[in-house]
Amino acid sequence: MDVVSIDPRTGEAVEVVAQETTTAEVDRLCAAALAAAPALEALGRTGRAGLLHALADGLEARREDVVAVADRETGLGTTRLNGELTRTTYQLQLFAEVLEEGSYLEATIDHAGATPMGPRPDLRRMLVPIGPVAVFGASNFPLAFSVPGGDTASALAAGNPVVVKAHGSHPATSQLVFQILVEAARGAGAPDGTLGIVHGVQAGADLVAHPAIRAVGFTGSVNGGKALLAIIEERPDPIPFFGELSSLNPVVVTPQAAGERGAQIGGELVGSFTLGAGQFCTKPGLAFVPSGPEGDAVVSAMAEAVRGTTAQILLNEGIATSYGRGAADLAELPGVETVAVGTRGDDAGFRATPLLLTTSAAELPHEVTEELFGPVSVVARYDDEKELFSALDAMPSSLTATVLRGEGETELPLAVSQELRTRAGRIVYDGYPTGVAVSWAQHHGGPWPSTNSQHTSVGTSAIRRFLRPVTWQGAPQEVLPAELTDDYQGIPRRVDGVLQLPR
Question: For this structure, is 60 an active site residue?
């Protein structure tokens, strides 16, 4: 079957990019990845760092082409996509730094000796590559969470070949970027089979079921994640599944914050939930705003900002249909009122009109606590702290939770933070959650249904997903990895319980 690239601005098919990948071809690609794994690991940390730099350079050299194709295929705009490509190349370079620094290996040496339990043998432990990884590209980030995204970067850094399931929303972008990466990888000395790509729903299922695949990285819907988990459970050897799935990302505006800068907060909240047409996993879908005049100022500013927006391009027909149906259902719920609607615009392509709704925190409908992709957000008004905390107790877990405080305010923000910390992976203060920096301290996860793992695809700890520990007992120096030999001093190591830094 043809894999067709569609222009979301018009809804029209533009080109046939490829054919859906057959089961036999999936098998060939997975076998090639498995065959490439030893040679990729043998490149060592320095060689793989060079590979990641080469991938970044290859993308940068084709920036104009990549952005043009991605814009035509997603409607996200060249400014956004240039920023996303910069993020993607930086992410590759950051994981090169992770390799060079070396602490990710968790290298640990316990020399033979006496212990309270008796003699201890020589034990040396570190993390090693898990094996070929399947990566599922996300619809909403055609560069940063797709073929060259965080899953791919961290898996390659760990020493694992990657087979990517291209997303049907941007197959032409996926294919172009894949070709660029393969060429760059070959030039950097990576073995053939280091990267592979498949198209089609059945190919994705075949990929997850293939015995060569040792882990799966996925960004998408809860239902999509559950479908892949069901396939994994049917394998004779279940494998790790790292999913980033669904997130509401609640925001709490304290009464003091509303009183000090209500109009400013209102405009900023709308900017956040309409960014990228509301197609961010970190979009603030529900904001708790106090009752009374201070909260009214927040809501009035939000309404004004929403009325000033126009219909926005969504990524594909499925998202557009889901948004239209879901927004209409929310607006018809008992106790939910429509505050403001953006300008509709024309009906060409896949478009969504921004929408602002309001309800009561005391009688919060369950439906407003579920993620809805697109430029819609709900404001829940609360009368007092008891009402606020009762509503927060009903929140599903999310990637983020945000607290907007007044100047010098700590007591209520601390109490809100303690409540939300149990159900969010990142707590944002006096800012907005839609930006996710790539850094050593970043975390992009949370309890189910936001993710199902402790480490996700943003931040350097993402590499931990695609490694497994091995201990060498009583091993001669000649068979040990270099990082575990006695005289090696190039990375941080814990030796006999003492952390030793490189010299």
Answer: no
CA 267/CA 258 separation, integer angstroms: 12
Q: Is position 30 annotated as part of the catalytic site?
A: no
Sheet containing strand 195-198, strands side by side: 195-198, 162-165, 133-136, 215-219, 241-244
The three-state secondary structure class of 130 is coil
Q: Round to whole Å and give the CA distance between 365 and 369.
A: 8
Kindly give the pairing relationship between strand 118-120 and strand 113-115: antiparallel
As beta bridge partners, residue 5 has 15
Closest by alpha carbon to 244, among 217, 267, 262? 217
Q: Compute the average pLDDT of residues 151-158.
A: 97
- Joined tokens for residue 491: 């990375």
User: pLDDT tens digits, residue range 345-363?
Assistant: 788 899 999 999 999 999 9
Residue tagged active-site, from 244, 268, 371, 387: 244
**What is the model's pLDDT at position 90?**
97
- In degrees to the nearest 10, what's the CA dihedral of 130, 135, 140, 141? 70
Is the overall model pTM greater than 0.90, yes or no? yes
- Which one-letter amino acid corresponds to residue 245? L
pLDDT tens profile 416-430: 999 999 999 999 999
Give the helix/strand (H/E) hosting 321: helix 317-331
Catalytic residue among 73, 268, 281, 371: 281
